[in-house]
Write a structure and sequence with these properties.
Number of domains: 5
Structural class: alpha+beta
Distance between the termini: 54 Å
CATH class of the largest domain: Alpha Beta
Helix content: 10-25%
Radius of gyration: 31 Å
CATH superfamily of the largest domain: Metallo-dependent phosphatases
Amino acid sequence: MRRIFILLSLILALFLTACKNEEKFEFKEVSIDLYVGEEVLIPYEGLELEFVSSNDSVEIIGSKIRAKGIGVSIITPKDEKYKNKQLVVNVIPVFKFNFEELNVTVGSKVVVDYFLLDGYTLEITTTNNYITYENGVITGITPGESKLSAKVTKDNYIYVTSINVIINSNIVVLEEIVITGINNVKIGETIKLSYTLIPNTYEKVNWSSSDESVISVNSFGYVTAHKVGVATITASVGDISKTHEITVIDSADINYVDLYYVNDLHGAIERENNSLGLAYIANFIDKRREENPNTLLLAGGDMLQGQAMSNYYYGTSTLTIMELMGFDAMAIGNHEFDWGLKKVTDKFDKVNGIVSFPLLGINVREKATNQIPENILPYVMIEKPDVKIGVIGVIGEYLESSIAYNMVKDYEFINPRNLIKDAARTLRENGADFVIVVIHDDNDSLNDDLSMFSGKERIDAIFTAHSHMLTATTVNGVPVIQSRHNGEYVGHIRLHKYGSHIVENINYHEDLNTPNLEVQQQIEIYKAETDPIFNKVIIKNRNMTTDREELSSWIARLMRNKTGADIGFHNYGGTRTYINANENITLKKLYQIWPFDNVVKTVKLKGAWVKLLMDNTSLVYDTDVVIEDDKEYLVATNDYVFDHEGNQYIFNQGTQHTNTELLLRDLAEEELTRQSEIYDYFDPNNPFIITYFYKEDYIFVYL
């Protein structure tokens, strides 16, 4: 009996010790240093807990930390009980230039000093021929600015950074004077001509006019028009000069406004395929403004989401270029919600934003307040030299269904008709000569209704979008236009104060063959930063086209394969383009195919519900099992399909609703990268390399 008592006592002691140990948790270190891309186990002892990071510098994968970006992050347990336990993670680069900017004179050499972690491969290049780089030394060649770009690689890891290099000349000699300014002025008008000295010698510029009775010019380049005629203005420095011809017109000669328009740009910044390119459109618009100062440039929404160079900066690159181009207003589109509305609207903030033109959406409402969201305006009055134009922005009242549910659930788009009437009346009472409406929608019924407004409520022109159609017509005498997508056309409506109008879409003009140098320079800056990331070839396509339907089926099969699901679904509209025969597949191409940041979600559903999804003609699916009504199946799809209002009832019938947090485009990149190691080319019928990972390998979020 005594032995039994002793044994029970030992068991109880061990149990109490174990229970006590179960409550113990400590980080083994106060802080650790990680290089970008490095992955380590979280140093802790005691309870197995889940962890969270204070920012995006690190990514937590189960019990591991992966360093993603330079900075300091605080790791804490999710469990509130242990929130006082912290691990400081300092993420440092694997490479770093030992200076932020470098100055060099023409003909001189400077040693490039840097830090590089052992085991990594370094490639240093220059962005132009103003300098050369060889064996760790740069040489100044031409005065100006350049960039020294470093690309660090190891296995699949890539890190890119750059620094500015200023190349100075010992002796600066003026080569050219460039004059900028409008070519038409009205009697009595005074304007300023700007100039650029190339290179900048900081010398004084002398101004003169060929006919002071027509146009006079002062020593600062301000010209004043006196009578109808033509005069040549000359800017000179010593023997170097430049002329600029100006025509003086009577005020009554300009009785119209020119409205130029781009809709559904989808981040198509560069000139490629059928896209005209924003630098070239900018030059075209500059010339039109010189011809007519009463010129507006408008955007019809869906301007940011869709191409790698825009998505990489969450639209900042596109908006920065639009600001340089002098856009006057932009209507909001459904894809402006894709990253979360605030991420876009903050860029239009009057104090801290990056653009000066307004974002318009008269019928967008926050459900909680029934107010227009912050940094969105219902309309704007734009004043040009001879005319006032009221611009009203609208989004289609049923386009909530075109947006991922989680991104639009707090907003609604109400019927705009009466709102437009009231706004038009207000604008005219405040002096508007014309009132136009920019609608991110293609709704014939709405166009008909607006065209019938009369009196102070009348609408002079309607700009549409969303359907990517090419339209230039009139409805009940009111011009209506839409200009395709991706900047393939520039829309143009000329409204006369008296007489007929012009309605046209333009994709060929001699001024579309030359880029605006300031805009092109900004694009080159973005290209220098992103080309090493987006233009690296992952794998080549097969020697025949892989169409959208094949790619949609392939991505559905990839989702199924990655999650171990029985069936995968993808919406056909979520695959935006195809791959040409023998085309190199890059990350840039993957952004074009799957531009939206969709993640994979899974749910367990009975077969009868799965069959309803299979009957949905907007969806593509992949499965290798026969679906039976009463059996339960694991279903994988993207979050747009999962959260779509039309599908919610079906998915709500399931169990284990799971957000895998796996980005669809990242899955495609990972799979194609692995295929490139085995296959000579991509074929949608290639067996997958990525295989099913159990949920324990991921931090799935149960909804």
